[in-house]
Amino acid sequence: MKKLLLVATVAIVLIAVLAFTKEKSIPDTSLLSLNEISEKDILENTKAIIYLSTTADQDIDNKGLSYGVFVQEDHSVQALAMNGLELGSIAVGKEEILLEDKNNISIIGDATKKFEMDTPQYTGERTGYLPKNELFFSIYNSGFVENGYSSEVRYGDSKGFKVDTIPHYIVASGTTEKSVEILTQDLEEDQFYLKEVTVDTELNVKDITAIQTESTENMQVLAPVLSDESYYYLIISTITSDTSETVSLYRIHKESLKQETFELINYKDVDLTATIPYNYKNSAAIHNDKLFYINGLGEVYSFHLPTTDVKKEFSLDKASNSTVRHNEETYFNSGELYVLRYNSEKKEPYYLESCSLDKGKLTDSVPIDGLETIINGSKNKKVYSYDLKVLK
Amino acid sequence: MELKKTILALSLTTTMLFSSAASVSANSSLTSTTTGLNEISKLQPDISKQELLSDVRTIAANTGQSEQSILEQIYTELKNNEEQGKKEKAISAEVTAYGGSGGTKSVGASTKGNFYYTPSQTAYLDHGHVGMYYTSTTIVESVPSAGVRTISTTARKVDSSGAVVKSVTTSTANRNNAANWTNTQVGQSYSYNFATNRQTGHTGAKNCSKLIWSAYKLNGSLDLDVNGGLGVYPRDVRDAKSTALVRNI
């Protein structure tokens, strides 16, 4: 009995020690105010930015929180704490970036501007920058209003932001130089629609086409809306059983609106939740005549645009096939695939890898010092990653 | 390895024992209506005392119970819910500390009419949270401030520890109708009132557990509340007897 009591006491002490070391509070030196970001020229030395937020259900006490985490070139991190915004994200403009929370838009560059918005938002969809118009935008799945569904759009620049709405529930989106393509879902009609949104002095929504599917009931969108000169591309899967799913690429000709479907991946006897991309908003990109797609198993597939050939290009090293995630994120830019990864056995468990899409090889891997402390820094809240942007 | 298992088992048992003791002590009496309102407000600070008192008076008028006994019942339910949250959080933390999964997961797809439960932290309480599968890949759920919303199952992240998908044991027609009904509620505002949400109307503002409870109450006459009472909390829905585990998320 004494032995048992001793073991139990040791166990409790051990747990207390583990809990204490696990929930380190964020050091003051890692937290920045908006003014300090400008004053210290943080962007000058920023390699990447990660967006973390609590989910909307944790905002019950109005104390949801988010962080814009600036990963510095020396691998250290500095974080801007904000209010929460589930599925919030970061936009990168010309020498400026946009950060957001449920109440505010912040533009960070040589000068820093913060705009308080009249109506809070709780579910982000996409932020971005339209170079042709030199405008930032952010779209939210806001919910039903009196006369139907409303997705609020905030758009503007460092001079100010306007607000308008898109009357649709958005399931995917993507950007070009001058427009935002959105895939909307009408749950009553059981139908997906592709539309184009442009913003300038005002916001316009143009219908492109309805997507030809028998039903949307067992379908899920796994990638952003992509496009090139001739086509729009969607990646949508159809779940056929608890362990089977077909991932298809939908190609829609921009002029004729002819639709074609190509099978990308056919999963059989797998845990389908594990195959969901790390971030379905950043899971695909077009580079050198190929459309690349990375799934949740760390497998990179390509669709050769001229020939329509599908190929498994490469896999991330030691990628997990578990459904458990540790804030992994992906970001495609200039022929590189950047991946925020986690390995509990490393001294700094979070690290940023880059892989060449052309060579299918790892080109760089750098630790991110202190990200774990920020992620685990809140005792009563849990933040999750929702975006990664790599600046250099 | 065996020692590790023994320590884990003992520490879990110890936590449960301490938690049970705390739960029993929660049933202590409130000395007056004012004390009752004050104590309840500490556990549910987003509801004004006036609003709570108004609800209590309505319930008292409808049931013939005294206001004091209704306040006692609300307090006991809230306190027990708080203790259960603490207990589950402690167990989850210990499992993680001993090499459990930690991390996050997407809720993933499931059958229309099923629901998911996840632990959900606030500064003052782990209420838990539930959401309905409106389609196999679309969740309808009520979240603070935003109200009833739709979100893709690929987008909805939850803790990997303690989250589950459950089905409701009833006909497919009831499940489909219940799921369809939740979709008709999208856009309704959020209610912070868990304490007396069984007594409030099915339409209008509602929280996450009320959404699912009402959906099956109106479509199949099922009472997805493990312990009855005045309030239906997310864990009450999760543990209701007409539900079955589909999978751990």
UniProtKB/TrEMBL annotation, chain A:
Domain of life per record: Bacteria
Protein name: Lipoprotein
Lineage, broadest ranks: Bacteria, Bacillati, Bacillota, Bacilli, Bacillales
Automatic annotation (TrEMBL), chain B:
This protein's UniProt keywords: Signal
Signal peptide annotation: 1-21
InterPro entries according to UniProt: Papain-like_cys_pep_sf
Protein name: YycO
Organism field: Sporosarcina aquimarina
